[in-house]
Amino acid sequence: MGNESQNFLPEMGDQEGPQQGPSWGNPNWLQQVVDSDADLTAALDPTQMRLAVKAAAEKAGKATDPKAIEQAADDSIKAMLLVRLYRVRGHLAADLDPLGLSHRDVPDDLKLEWHGLAGQEAREVYVGGVFGFEWVTIGDLYRVLRETYCGKVGLEYMHISDTTERRFLQDKFETPEDTIQFTDEGKRAILASVIRGEEYEKFLGKKYVGTKRFGLDGGESMIPALEAVIKYGGQLGVREIIYGMAHRGRLNVLANVMGKPYKVIFHEFSGGSSNPDDVGGSGDVKYHLGTSTDRSFDGIDVHMSLVPNPSHLEAVNPVVLGKTRAQQAIRDDLKQHEQVLPVLLHGDAAFAGQGIVWECLGFSGVRGYNTGGCLHFVINNQIGFTTSPQFARSSPYPSDVAKGVQAPILHVNGDDPEAVTFACKLAIEYRQTFGRDIVIDMWCYRRFGHNEGDEPKFTQPLMYDEIRKHPRVSELYTKRLESEGVIKPGDADALRSEFDQHLEEEFAAAKDYKPNEADWFGGRWAGLNKPADPETARRNVETGIDQKLFDSLGRTLTTVPDDVTIHKTLGRVIDAKRKMFDSGEGFDWATGEALAFGSLVTEGFGVRLSGQDSGRGTFSQRHAVWIDQKDERKYIPLTTLPHGKFEVYDSPLSEYGVLGFEYGFAMADPKSLVMWEAQFGDFANGAQIMIDQFIAAGEVKWLRANGLVMLLPHGYEGQGPEHSSARLERFLQLCANDNIQVCNITTPANYFHVLRRQMLRPFRKPMVIMTPKSLLRHPLAKSTAEEFMGDHHFMRIKSDMTEIDDTKIKRLVLCSGKVAYDLMQRRDEAELKDVSIVRIEQLYPFPGEPLAVRLERMTNLEEIVWCQEEPKNNGAWFFVDRLIEEAATKAGKDGMRPTYAGREVAASPATGFASRHQVQQQALVNIALGLNGGTSN
Predict the structure, then answer these.
(1) Which of the residues 142, 156, 365, 521 has the least number of beta carbons within 10 Å of its own beta carbon?
(2) Same domain as 359, residue 286
């Protein structure tokens, strides 16, 4: 077999392979031109056309030649078609690439020849007020169109269906006084910001040779542009900005936009901790850390925070949006969305490539998730690590995904800091006016490799030959301002020298810097703390409620307003609830949950629940929302309660994005019980990045406590591999350092207490609950009224439902979740008098102490069995094995280890055949109980 061409890419004509050619080549995407005058005419406003004809006729005056009138009208229509095309497609010919490598031919339909106007530049045409002109020569119109739409800023906005929004952007872009103009003072401020950005990167490169910093080199125009967002945003009502961004330029933003002291960053560069030594935590690399600060422009203070994030690109986006939503709620800003602004900074390859970007864009107009518009800033380096645009996406721009929500897009040349600043100024005006997302796509370059130790010429040699020769942004801008007479020769050098001296002073101060407090429990988190007790310590608080509140909540949950017509089946559900409260017996899962929600709201807490079917509940169990059967009005009983706020949302069909959003909400508001519910527990797989990087590790990495609750339906009922397991084992594998709580609860009252405990303790930890499916209506999974009141609290261990004298127990079966009821029923059928079933309701932190106390009382115990429904390589077995042994040792039962009863190892979580499931279930129950000659393995 020959191999002469095996290592070469296909030729350009090979439609199945990637393109050849220079690294800056665009994707293989044809830019279509409009085919005919008829197509364009159909797109024009008919009223405008009629006015054009009338004006042309009037201009002809007393001319009797009909052809002259016809010619004038025809010229006017062609001119308006030209204007229309520039508004739609002018960005395709804009001067965007600082390196000049991205070849952008002017489309034919943007040329005078295509419209039949070439050679007629001196002829006057009627344009009806466009650019302030009633009549204008074709030459002047063409010049203005080119200057406006094909300069350093290219605007995409004609895909927006709302005419008011389009007209706003059009007016801002086409009106002379609103084009890219700054005062001399403003230009000098922009230059100073660019110089700070550049000199800071150069200083880091000089002092920390070879250290990764993911510098902004080549994109420094972003610094004055972001400052413009603060300044003009403040003038338009913004009082808080929440940022999310990846590595590129993060240290620069922290220092020169957020105002994090340079000495602190230098301290961290030298290996110092960002927190006091006694705080603990693993810490994180410096380009993942966040901060918060206040900046003032024109006497207006704006609070800013940069959310910490992992290396997983764009993962921080939903967290920022959720935190923004929470802050808007806290500021009573959910109607106008004016005071709190989310700003997300993206890389070009990530914006085009990461699906979470679209998930977050999709939130922009959804009730419960809308934040009044996010400002997206794409640092378009025209490369992703080593991947060129032609391999990174199938669309002309990385920003094209934003067209799905009709967001306007401003493409801008990063070598023109005035243009970038103008784009941000226009963006914040648009966002504050319309409450919608907007994108700035800043074309720039990456002066060094993906990190400063990388060699980019391995993969993009021609691009980096150009970059090596290309002057820095400040050099280009300095020459421009000198030519305009805004600054004198030497002024820029003086700015550099002064700033470099300041950096040297901060560098010296970093050697003695020690953080004196952790940025942790301030603001709304005041009064909360990090728990000091060990993992296994009892942390229960009294979570029972009094009889008066219990009865009041019962009336709320069972009273149907006269003007609400409910579904007849829901009527039966409410009747059953009423009987529960009348009898004090038979409280089911949904009622226990509603009591927890209602009691917390009455006590002044917020309760927020979201998921794909959370209003009704995936299993028609919750009915938090009652839909009027005549007009579909929604009645939500728990929203009628005083003091707190209850919210329940049917979320977009997203796990990754929505879970991140709720995590961000809980990050901002510890006084709300924030819950995300998966439709089925295993659907959380789609959000694994959020679970691994934020929920499990956020506190230890970034000192960010969080009380988010995940509700994951879990249980083996023969419904197949995708509707059985919430992957309990994965959560348990993440457990360490008292980071999260993992529960598998079996009674409504215990569920009630664990939800209340989540808010009543003086600290917050994420909690993962394996919620039931069949237990929602299981006849044994019921609670009494008494169990919700008085001194009752969450039980980490639940005793057997059949009372057995501890001294008579020979076999103890430990388990968690639904299988407990299968075991109890089979045990009682077999009349086994020396077998006890004990449920571990909280798997982490593992209740080793109370379990040891129970084991110590079982003086004749011979065997401990761990029984689970999941396959042996799944579920809790490998987690609890040694922990149970440790508890037995503490109880004086040295050498007693649990044996396993459950399904054999399996690659798939569960069988898809109901009959096979039933056989497996019966077998594992019998083995656990020692029946039918079965032995544990």
Answers:
(1) 365
(2) yes
- List, in sequence order, the alpha helices (H) in 734-795: 748-760
pLDDT of residue 524: 87
Per-residue pLDDT tens digits for 627-669: 999 999 999 999 999 999 999 999 999 999 999 999 999 999 9
pLDDT at position 247 is 86
Question: What CATH number should be reported for the domain holding residue 759?
Answer: 3.40.50.12470
Task: Report how far apart, in Å, the C-alpha atoms of 560 and of each of 210, 212, 549, 682 are.
Answer: 69, 63, 19, 35
Q: Are 366 and 411 in the same domain?
A: yes
Residue 672 DSSP one-character state = E
Domain of residue 449, CATH code: 3.40.50.970
How does pLDDT run across 598-617, given as a tens digit for each residue?
A: 999 999 999 999 999 999 99
Contact of 791 with 816, CB cutoff 8 Å: no
Same domain? For 650 and 747 the reply is: yes
- pLDDT of 16: 41
Q: Which residues pair with 769 in a beta bridge?
A: 711, 743
Helix orientation angle between 66-89 and 46-60, rounded to the nearest 10 degrees: 140
**Cα-based angle 33, 35, 41 (whole degrees, multiple of 5):** 105
Q: Which of 189, 193, 216 is nearest to 204 (CA)?
A: 216
Other C-beta atoms lying within 10 Å of the C-beta of residue 583: 11
More confident residue, 673 or 48: 673
Run of H or E including 885: helix 877-890
Residues 6 or more apart in contact with residue 351 via CB below 8 angstroms: 314, 357, 376, 378, 398, 399, 401
End-to-end CA distance of the chain: 53
The letter for the amino acid at 854 is R
What is the overall mean pLDDT for the chain?
90
Distance of CA 138 to the CA centre of its chain: 49
Domain boundary among 151, 173, 193: 151
Q: How many residues does the chain have?
A: 937
Same domain, 138 and 197: no
What is the pLDDT confidence band of residue 507, given thresholds at 50, 70 and 90? Answer: very high
Pairing outcome for strands 709-713 and 672-677 = parallel
Q: What is the pLDDT of residue 179?
A: 66
Alpha helix (H) ranges present in 242-396? Answer: 250-256, 262-269, 316-330, 348-353, 355-362, 389-392
- Residue 571 and residue 574: Cα distance in Å, rounded? 5
Give domain status of residue 473, yes or no: yes
Which residues, in sequence order, are bridge partners of residue 410? 155, 440
Distances (CA, A) of 149 to 76, 88, 95, 440: 20, 9, 10, 15
Question: What is the DSSP code (8-state) at residue 610?
Answer: E
For the whole prediction, is pTM greater than 0.85? yes
Encoding tokens for residue 787? Answer: 């169990």
Q: Closest by alpha carbon to 138, among 130, 58, 94?
A: 130
**Rounded to whole angstroms, how far apart are CA atoms 76 and 632?**
52
How many Å apart are CA 613 and CA 606, to the nearest integer?
20
Q: Which residues contact 657 (CB under 8 A, 6 or more apart)?
A: 317, 318, 356, 359, 360, 362, 363
What residues does 438 pair with on adjacent strands?
375
- The H-or-E segment that residue 771 falls in is strand 767-771
State the alpha helices, DSSP H only, in 472-516. Answer: 473-484, 491-510
Which residues constitute the domain of residue 461?
Answer: 184-519
> Which residue, 793, 796, 795, 901, is CA-closest to 848?
796
Amino acid (1-letter code) at residue 848: G
Quick count: other Cβ atoms within 10 Å of Cβ 693? 19
Interval 915-921 mean pLDDT: 93
Peptide bond into 18 cis (omega under 30): no
Say yes or no: 589 and 508 in one domain. Answer: no
Alpha-carbon distances, residue 397 vs 359, 443, 619 (angstroms): 19, 10, 43
Q: Are residues 508 and 551 in the same domain?
A: no
Instruction: Check whether 936 has a pLDDT greater than 60.
Output: no
Domains held by the chain: number: 4
Mean pLDDT value of segment 815-831 = 96
